């Protein structure tokens, strides 16, 4: 099937006729749905969505492009990435392909190579890629061991300003959680986070005094008006379940800010009753959960000469059924934690459907890379199509789910402010100066 459109109308007001939209991504429109998909004409005017109408009812006389029932999505939200690590694989691979190998490789590369210029160049490459794929909102975690926290957050703030209006950016500080009791380090880190309008993060795991450390985290976040985004239970070890402890700590501290937990893989290894009690606590605490299926399948249950048994995902369906806000995201890109990836939410969505079984039905599946992560990140202006909202849209030739999920959708068209963008992806050769090639 060819692309639905070769060129958008050269007009300030025009119609995208015969579009197919994921209903979960559309606000304020009632229409008959089939597998969660609805048909509509979209009127675009002055860079905004003027109207979403029944097919064939758009005002006559307007320039129009017939999408022939091709899908139209809002731009994407990638809510858990690592822009500071991206694209170091070629200079620092992870031959073992496991978590410990990734930690060691990144540590070596960070200490040797992560100057401001190096971090900026790799961030820029990643953002050019994400923008071309149709992403408009990204949250990244930044390695924040001293002195890297000051280098990376300063670069991030500059990049965030440069990319304003194209991709909105958020950043969470990532550090080993046992260091939260190092008063000098943590005080300095919080100052950097506040100055750069970031979030508190960290890698939580079983350790002595975890409750006390979590109390410090929540108290500090409250005092400074910070939200929290944590790496949690990124393991297949059944004995590790800090997720429950985090939920209890949020409730105990009466914390009113947003708390996101990523990974939560060991939850899927728990006995049924333990899992149910934990999920109940997560829902009661109001935590949001993001799964990173591609990266965790790559890293986890990897043993030489042995076929993996585990998928590396959390109890996504059970959490969702309990009322927990759930999403999926890219995580790492071409670095020791994940050798592949291109910051393309279509790929993330397609693989998540397969890995987590988000299908049968697919009625609301599109939310996991659009409106739900946008809501979690407190940016409801992203991830949905709404009358009066910006015409930030992604157009596909695919008309139905089977077509959408069976191909990479490389012929998609990305619209920002009602106009098509140049979708040329940056050339990997642009990174050669960073690799010594």
Automatic annotation (TrEMBL):
Domain Amidohydrolase: from-to ranges: 211-410
Lineage top rank: taxon: Bacteria
Short name of one Pfam family: Amidohydro_3
Gene3D superfamilies found in the cross-reference section: Metal-dependent hydrolases, Urease, subunit C, domain 1
PANTHER family linked: CYTOSINE DEAMINASE
Name used for this protein in its record: Cytosine deaminase
Organism: Rhizobium wuzhouense
